[in-house]
Design brief:
Blueprint lengths: L6 H16 L3 E3 L7 E5 L7 E5 L6 H22 L6 E5 L16 E5 L10 H6 L13 H27 L5 H19 L9 H6 L17 H4 L7 H22 L1 H22 L10 H17 L1 H25 L5 H18 L7 H23 L2
Parallel strand pairs: 3-4, 4-5
Antiparallel strand pairs: 1-2, 2-3
């Protein structure tokens, strides 16, 4: 078999190879898109790279191309739950009557490449992709070039598939089971002490470690209540509702993050939810429940879903967001719900997830920022709760 690649074909193959294997982009399948290749990487400054081989002969045709590109980007943003999206359109075959500089649109930068050396003319591209010119060092031609690039792209795709399988494969949720059992043991212990199954007395909740306003606590040594209150519940309905939510959400999140990161998210968001609760808690009220920690799991799920939105984009919109909205509405409608703990847990879970990181996605910089933001939040809540 003999494959002949013209100059434009070679440029396109080298660009695809560079963006997939060197910059971590993935192809996007678009129905009806001809003579163009769309690549996506949500972590890059240009979330979309578009390589256009179609011949564009005048500015009017380019205007239509830009309009169509904007419409497709809107659909991709909705599907991937992206808040912003910038694109780089690389044109390989422009007519002499086309003026790229006069047809720029927001969030879409355009360059024309007729030779690899042309890339050097665009400083903004070189700043973001400083190694892109090394694609000109590929010396293979024709079939040899095609086979080399295809093999390396396939290898990269297999590596990405292996990582996705590692993250999304089901694992035994040992920590979730341990949390469920711990909550059950504490609930049974309170019932066996003589408490009412359907409405536990505040004194019982307090004696078992319920959370109270700091002014009501017996000093700093009682800060253990920030943790113990997470494992107590005020009624059978309260217990069953929270444990059902933990049973549904917990195993998935434990599988995504791993056991110890998951435990950090659960306990960390629960403590932050309780610190937030103390800001608004009256001195005669005892607060208990795993709701803050469970909302923290939802916050962590939002953070994880954003990083893996290519896989979870539709799930985010159809399941995760509606579940979150439903729980907040329920919190506002039902009496006796600690809304402050829910908000604190949700935000805390998001930040703890950012600090511990998402496998294969989070950078060291992301995690450092998460740790800094977490310390600021905990410091602020602690100051307002204990020293104001």
């Amino acid at each position: 078999m003999n494959i002949t690649l013209n100059k434009n074909d070679e440029i396109v193959m080298k660009l695809i190879h560079y963006f997939i294997t060197e910059q971590g982009y993935n192809p996007i399948v678009l129905h009806g898109a001809k003579d163009e290749i769309w690549l996506e990487n949500s972590e890059q400054d240009y979330q979309i790279v578009r390589i256009v081989t179609n011949y564009i002969h005048n500015d009017e045709q380019l205007d239509f191309d830009m309009y169509r590109t904007q419409q497709i980007m809107k659909k991709i943003k909705q599907k991937t739950f992206s808040f912003k999206m910038n694109a780089l359109s690389i044109f390989i075959n422009l007519g002499e009557n086309v003026h790229l500089e006069d047809n720029a649109v927001n969030h879409i930068d355009c360059i024309e490449i007729k030779d690899i050396e042309d890339i050097k003319k665009y400083d903004f591209v070189m700043d973001i992709f400083p190694t892109i010119t090394k694609i000109d060092k590929v010396t293979e031609k024709g079939l040899e070039l095609f086979m080399k690039l295809t093999e390396e792209i396939n290898s990269k795709n297999q590596e990405d598939a292996s990582k996705a399988e590692d993250v999304f494969s089901k694992k035994r949720p040992i920590i979730t089971y341990a949390l469920l059992i711990s909550n059950l043991v504490m609930f049974l212990a309170m019932i066996l002490s003589g408490a009412n199954l359907f409405n536990l007395d505040a004194n019982v909740l307090y004696n078992f470690g319920g959370l109270v306003n700091f002014g009501t606590m017996g000093g700093y040594w009682e800060l253990y209540r920030l943790v113990t209150s997470m494992f107590l519940h005020a009624s059978l309905f309260h217990f069953l509702f929270n444990m059902y939510a933990l049973y549904i959400i917990g195993p998935q999140l434990e599988s995504f993050f791993g056991k110890w990161k998951y435990l950090c998210i659960y306990l960390g968001s629960g403590i932050i939810g309780n610190l937030m609760s103390m800001l608004f808690q009256e001195s005669n009220v005892v607060s208990v429940g795993a709701s803050g920690a469970i909302f923290g799991l939802l916050g962590a799920l939002l953070y994880f879903g954003y990083h893996y939105r290519v896989y979870l984009g539709s799930v985010m919109k159809s399941q995760i967001i509606p579940l979150l909205v439903f729980n907040f509405l329920l919190a506002f409608l039902l009496p006796g719900i600690n809304i402050a703990a829910h908000f604190g847990g949700l935000f805390g879970g998001y930040l703890v997830a950012k600090a511990v990181g998402v496998k294969y996605k989070s950078t060291t910089g992301d995690q450092v920022n998460g740790v800094i933001m977490l310390f600021i939040l905990v410091g602020f809540l602690s100051y307002m709760s204990f020293f104001r």
